[in-house]
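Researcher: Quick test of sequence recovery. Tokens follow.
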């Protein structure tokens, strides 16, 4: 269950900076060619994995104890929603297109990052419980 505790606003700075970087990159008409073994979907998944992780950190209040399924789901929703706005933005950039498969890659990247962080958080709490350490 997501906590309603106040979250420091500075935790959102990485989210805003990364979102601004995505917007700037999406504004470029001619994208450089990717190496042969890298697809644009891999790039989308990686970029939105970082955004999803940053959203999760901010929503969790910068604390491992703040990581929950609800917070992870909210971070995926936020990152994917931003991906949707970015695809809409690309529709208006000459030489770029909006692609639902890019949005799916955005979702996959943010969901993967959230799943890894959620699993690590769960394992961390489990380890601390077994070894009698305080969770934080």
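Model:
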């Amino acid at each position: 269950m997501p906590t309603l505790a106040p979250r420091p606003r500075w935790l959102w700075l990485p989210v805003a900076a990364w979102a601004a970087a995505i917007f700037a990159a999406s504004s470029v008409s001619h994208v450089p060619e990717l190496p042969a073994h890298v697809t644009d979907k891999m790039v989308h998944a990686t970029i939105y994995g970082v955004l999803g992780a940053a959203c999760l950190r901010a929503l969790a209040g910068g604390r491992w104890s703040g990581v929950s399924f609800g917070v992870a789901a909210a971070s995926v929703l936020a990152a994917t929603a931003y991906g949707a706005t970015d695809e809409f933005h690309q529709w208006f950039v000459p030489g770029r297109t909006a692609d639902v498969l890019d949005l799916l890659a955005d979702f996959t990247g943010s969901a993967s990052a959230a799943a890894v962080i959620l699993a690590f958080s769960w394992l961390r709490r489990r380890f601390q419980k077994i070894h009698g350490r305080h969770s934080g």
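The chain has a mean pLDDT of 91.
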